[in-house]
Amino acid sequence: MAKKKSFAIIGASNFSLAVLTTLVDKRQSITMFDIDQDRLNLYLAEFDSVDAIVLDSTNKMGLAKAGVNSYDGVIVGLGSNIEASIMTVLNLIDLDCHNIIAKARDEKHRRILLALGLSENQIIIPDRLAGKMIGTRAVFDIDIDIDLHSIDDEFISTTLTVANPDIIGKTLQDAGLSSTKDFNIIQIRRKGKTLLPDDYTELKEQDDVVVFAKITVINGLAEKIQSNKESEEDVIPTLFDFDELNNGENSNVDENLFDNLVFEEDATQGMTNSAPKTRRNKTKSNT
C-alpha cells in the first residue's frame, strides 16, 4: 500500500473528480477547495472521507490561512478558467508549495504555466494525454492501458498479460525474454504481489508483465506473451486412410463412426420423405 499523504485539490471539476477518486482508492487524505459551495457539495456527495473548504484560490491570503503549503501535494484542476488557474499557481509558488500539479486547457495555457516556473511533468493536458493513449493503442497490438509517461519517440512502457501456452511454466531465459538492448522486463505482478524478475523467474498464466521496450519490438513481445492461438493439432481434425477404416485396421477409430455418415443418395431420399422444417428466429429478451 502507498504511504499515506495529504493532498489539496483546487477546483471542483471532472478532472479533479477523476484525481480524487484515484486518491481515495489509494486511501490518501484529501481536501478539495472551490469557491462554490453548491459545486463542492455536488462533487463530494459520495465521498464522506474528503474534506471540503469554500475558498477563492486567487486570494493568496485565503490560501495561506487554509495552510495550503502544509499539504504533500497540490493539484490545480481549474483548466477552464485560465486566469484563475494562473493566479492560483502564482499564489502556490509564492507560498512555497513545492509539489504542484496543474491542469492546462491547451498549449497556450501550458506555455504560460511553464513560464511561471512549473516543469513539464507538473503540467497535464487531459485531451492530449487521452489522444496520445488512443493513438498509441491504435498503432500497437496492446489491449491494455499504457504508461504514457514512459512513451517517447523510441521507447514505450506497458503491461502484457501472459496467455501464450508456449511460455507458461518457462523461465524468462527459456522463453527468450531475457533483457536485451531492445527491451527489458521491469517487474511481474502476480496475485497482488510484485516480483522483480531475473532470467530464472518462471512465468505463470495471467502474470502481468511490465515491459520497457523499443516501439519496433513491442508488437512482437505482445504476440509472444499474450498470444493464445489454438495449436494446429487442435484446429485440424485427424485424417484417416479410408481403406484402413473400411478394413478395420485403425484401432483409434470410433466403431460407430459410420453410423453418422450420410451419403448423397441417402440424403436425397431423406429430403423427399421429410416435411420441411421452419426456421426458428432468435428474439432479444427484455429481462
What features would you describe in this structure?
This protein is of the alpha/beta class. The protein has helices at 14-25, 37-43, 60-65, 82-94, 107-116, 126-139, 218-226, 232-235, 242-247, 264-273; strands spanning 6-10, 29-34, 51-54, 73-76, 100-103, 123-124, 155-161, 183-190, 193-195, 208-214. Strands 3-2-1-4-5-6 form a six-stranded parallel sheet, with helices on both faces. Strands 7-10-8-9 form a four-stranded antiparallel sheet, covered by helices on one side. Residues 277-287 have a biased composition (Basic residues).
Topology of helices and strands:
Blueprint: E1 6-10, H1 14-25, E2 29-34, H2 37-43, E3 51-54, H3 60-65, E4 73-76, H4 82-94, E5 100-103, H5 107-116, E6 123-124, H6 126-139, E7 155-161, E8 183-190, E9 193-195, E10 208-214, H7 218-226, H8 232-235, H9 242-247, H10 264-273
Parallel strand pairs: 1-2, 1-4, 2-3, 4-5, 5-6
Antiparallel strand pairs: 7-10, 8-9, 8-10
Helix pairs in contact: 4-5
